[in-house]
Amino acid sequence: MKVTISDVAKLAGVSTATVSHTINNTRYVSNETKEKVYRAIAELGYTPDASARSFRTGKKKIIGFIVPDIANKFFATMIESVEKYLSAHGYQLIIANTRENMEREETNIRLLTAGLVDGLLVASTMDDFQRFDALIPAGFPVVLVDRVFEEKKYSSICVSNFQPIYRSVCRLAGKGDRRIGITGGLPRLSSTQERISAYRQAMADCGLPEEEGLIQYGDSLENSACACLDKLLERRCDAIIVCQGMMASETIIYLHQKGIRLGKDIDLVSFVDYDSDVYTLYADQMDTIIQPVEELGEAAGEEILKRVESPEAPIFEKVLTSAYKPCSLSVGPVRGEA
Amino acid sequence: MKVTISDVAKLAGVSTATVSHTINNTRYVSNETKEKVYRAIAELGYTPDASARSFRTGKKKIIGFIVPDIANKFFATMIESVEKYLSAHGYQLIIANTRENMEREETNIRLLTAGLVDGLLVASTMDDFQRFDALIPAGFPVVLVDRVFEEKKYSSICVSNFQPIYRSVCRLAGKGDRRIGITGGLPRLSSTQERISAYRQAMADCGLPEEEGLIQYGDSLENSACACLDKLLERRCDAIIVCQGMMASETIIYLHQKGIRLGKDIDLVSFVDYDSDVYTLYADQMDTIIQPVEELGEAAGEEILKRVESPEAPIFEKVLTSAYKPCSLSVGPVRGEA
DNA sequence: CTGAAAGCGCTTACAG
DNA sequence: CTGAAAGCGCTTACAG
Predict the structure, then answer these.
(1) pLDDT tens digit string along A155-164?
(2) Looking at the structure, do residues A112 and A190 belong to the same domain, yes or no?
(3) What does B99-149 look like in DSSP terms, one character per residue?
């Protein structure tokens, strides 16, 4: 049979209140009494029932994280880092995987907010803020991660998407590239939109012609790079910017198989999954943009716990910066000079 | 204020029992009554409190998964597949990440089994069965995944480790390799042990000399491959078997950087993370062993739900088989023949 | 310094 | 066909 707090109280010869208080250190208990309680707990092998406790206090000590694609190393690493922060603060993390599907996101938000978690981290796949907002119970602690909405109703932690892409275009233009193609993730995502608009602005600023066909979109999941690349190659690009981490390795492989040499036949800049050792191989052949995933996760954990403790805290927006790692051979001769 | 079942009952003019039964479809309710209830629910925006419900019923509809390393794509993919199965059956998944640390595993098992989840999936990093067993409350539904103990007390879903490694050695021996090195994960893990013992047996069966220095162990996390490789290369191996998925890409990169050509200077066989597109690049240069991660996850989900429903169900052991993908150029001339 | 008791929001025998 | 009420295992004012 299940051992309850009353069993302990009975055996220790005290009230359940005293047992509860000694366990939780929530009011003074004399040392003798404490000892009796602990002895009884040990003898019975008592463990407080988390589900009763959270029902009673309304606190589950669980945070939910709605993730678009758990097999994407960017998110997997972020989850790891969020989990690390939370567990250090006595919280557990529940993951829900949407695979960039809005209905799945909807279902999961409903489920998790219905008494399962104390707060929610969301890397949303939605583009409609009203629809998203309607799912969140009033006052429920929410932090948007990596992807934001224009409406600033929720706290958010994300990465500056504009700067690295703008810089990429400038660097490529500086090398003499004129036809610069770009592949992004799902067009509806704020991250994709920011990146594409940085591209557009930089192209204009550098005086390079824009062309719709030079912009291609994938689905932010695996195996969408090749179709994009085919279209870009048709357009005879000098350079390609891959602004979606999942596409990076696919791109490298695909170009390799086509016999197109990086840094020679084509210039490449790519967002890269954090910590992915594969790219060190290509450090001398391409520029890489590395997102601060771990900081992102930690900041997200910090902010959601803050909101759980004080739901009325002011909205907070944090924008982190990616590292831009120029091709290690970029000091070589500019094309056309040789 | 929170809307409760009594608010609904009051507004609908029925008892809480009736509200509960119409929500859960758990006894006959007349259509008119149902309609009154649903109208009240809609009007008040009522959502049943999951935490009260699970406290009452003792069922949380949550499964816990203790994972050694969530950033390892093998486990990330498995999580995805478990989560898919569970959510299709109305369950949520909670992840705990141990980073191959026994203390963290202990803490997490204690936490999760104390009323947080209905059942537990564990890819354990422990080698001491007694210690593990002591953490599990009597009768608590547990399924071991990927890694097992000799004691057959719990159900398990894992992959046959013996066969692919045995075959690797035979294939390499058949190519004329004699000095075959192997790198494994943590020595304490059953998966590592099975692989190494398959190697030993195959080496003996093929009449190849064994040598302690040809066996190297990593830590089953990222960045442990290079040290192993250094030691193997010192021993002047003809071939290397990488029997830990995380090490695969590190190995390829490292050999590449050293100017050692796959299939020419050295033969390589490697376990490979599921679905990892990088390896298609090397399909003509190495043998790969691909584990059935998705099936593993699905089978694990199936078994844990079975045990949650009927905890007394007989112990079940499932062993899946990996795909062995021989190097696509292996039909070429055997070394020494040319 | 500690206890008696209410109550969190549900579900579910029991009763009619 | 439906209701009154007990009770799941805790925590926490209230009281002394």
Answers:
(1) 999 999 999 9
(2) no
(3) TT-HHHHHHHHHHHHTTT-SEEEE------HHHHHHHSPTT--EEEES---
